[in-house]
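Case study 2.
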Amino acid sequence: ESLGHMEGLQLIRGAMTAVRVPSAYDKVFNDECAVSFDTPYSPLGIYVSLTSWLSFGSHVVSMDVERAGDKGQLYVHCKWTRVPREKPTGGDEAEAPTRMAIGGEGGFQVEEEKYDVVKENTLVLLPQGVRVPLPCTELPELVSEAARAVLNKMSYLAEDKAAAVAWEAEVLPSKYAEDLVQLPPHKQISPDASTWVCEESGMRENLWLNLSDGHIGSGRRQYDGSGGANGALNHYNETKMHFPPNGFPLVVKLGTITPSGADVYSYADDENTEVSDPKLAEHLAHWGINMMRMEKTEASVAEMNIHANEKLELDKITEAGKELTPVHGAGFVGMRNLGNSCYINSVLQVLFALPEYGLFERQAAALFSSAGAEPMDDLLAQLGKLAVGLLTDRYAPGGAGAEEADEDGCIAPRMLKYIIGKGHAEFSSSRQQDALEYYQHFLESLNRAERSAGSRLPAEASLSRLFAFTQEERICVDGMVCYRDAEQQYLSLPIPIDQADNRAEVAAYEERSREKRQKVGEAVADKEADKEEPVVPLVPFEACLAKAAASEPLEVFRGRTGAERATRFKTFPRYLMVHMQRYYQDVDWTAKKLSVRVPVPETLDLTGLRGGGLQADETLLPEEEEAAPAAAPAPVAPDEAVVAQLMAMGFSENGSKRAALAVNNSSAEQAMEWVFAHLEDADFNDPLPPPGVRPAVADDVSAESVSVLEAMGFSERHARGALTATSGSIERAADWLFSHVDDLDRAVDEALGGGGGGGGGG
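Prediction:
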């Protein structure tokens, strides 16, 4: 046995050449498999690579091992178990929440604090199968250091979520930070987290350092007995007695200190909230802490808030008055709230309920193996991961990858959320968004991924086009007609509330509510109204279709008045996505949401909405007469004030000039939005072309790029015009085409330098 142990250590030494130690700025994914939803809490845990810092479930780790040489690859095998904590009996009563927050000082308890975690970490060499329990003093120092760093570093996914929420939350500087009193440094705080201890209770977690006198105390005790022992708060109350009126209010949470900041809390009566400390580095250095060399070892308040938001169940009853039986298994796997992510979950659940999207589950293994070294940044691989999670029983309760404490059977698509939202100002945030906008953005992202997939997907696969159809627009004026086509991915229907079937019942209910308010006052009336089931308008779906199909007047069309427009289907999609227009603009110009129900029938007959194109008895409206070529407009120069403001924000001069011109010098705010949307453009920092010189001509564009746009349904001339207008960028050209679809020919003429430009640009 001893010989086997020594041989194992020898094999580990042979494989350590590929080991890397992550720094404070490196990305580590140590809490979720890169290509599955296995976590350290799954029955077989996960394997964290000491080379790539990616994690892999036991069923897919062989895929990563194959990339290693004959010497194998080293992993830390993390197998963790949650053990419910016993509720404390007796002692001081815990404080009830004091602010509307979950996790952190004065907030609600985080769900995770109800458990103790038993961690079993083992160094593993694969495929040889050598296993060494950690920690082990006989391991080479490089291997031990890498294993410690991988285990202690907060996952990049958790850090990224926390950064988003911290940016959005209003954390103001404490007014006590600028002139903070600090007593002479009678002690130095060690950077070694194992030496930190509450000076009152002896606790070694959730510790807060008082920045004024160096006292270390535990955090507040929560209302159910979990959390700390009130050490930091009790000490603050003592300082108020000795140093009135405010004492020493600022504390920092040890374990959250990184080069970019830390959690700071003010106990002062006029703040009593999370704050920032502009002089934090200086205040920490006073006690011997160099924040530039610190790494995070505990969850921050923001991260705890996010996690609690993910766990929060606002309503388990989805149908009022009915006792529901939970259903689990393949196709019945839920998705966790990632922080205001219900719009994501609703869209993805609808899409992956379609049989066509089962392709991602069938192709998952091939998508994983062809994703390269960074599958977490590969959209197709992450869609395969999501499909396996939703469409198989692996993560249903009792499944091979389900966490033992998970009774609901849910997955958390954090990597997919990151990829889809990357570069998008709204979908990369943790703010609530519109499901329709996300649906469109998702299909655009999928369409780009499909075009570049090559052999990774079957040639006939076009999942982003399942909902696409052509809408025919017929405009009638002066006895003549004009037909125009537009590509759509959804049908938007108005809701004619005046056509509700139960108008009399709604009016009676509203009258009863008004009478109650007049008799007993608003507050009591609201309580009385709660006892009566609200009566909302019931609008037939057919009425919504009829409203959308009805002709609508146009003030002016091609200089003619009295025009009418009607829309019909020119083609029908495989699946019709319908958007109900529940938001409307009130008389005071504010957006409001209709309280209305629209029952949807099991079947729809859309025959009456099929367009027929130009009829034999119709006269086509002549095209607008071509105006004489106008003189070329004088070149516009970037507004110096706008450029100066952008440069003051740290952007390059060339990029600032491009932004100013892109928004026609309208304002620095609009220019800044353009910058954020185009910061990754290859030509962003390139010098502007001389006045009057176009950045590209139609003959210069790539034939391959033209083919890609043609595959999306555009003509060669349209594709060349779009690429010319966007300096050859395919993604920007696609966006340009869709944004100019209403008057595409004229926009292409302008992009190609006039109406005479042909398909070849000559």
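The two ends are 81 Å apart (CA to CA).
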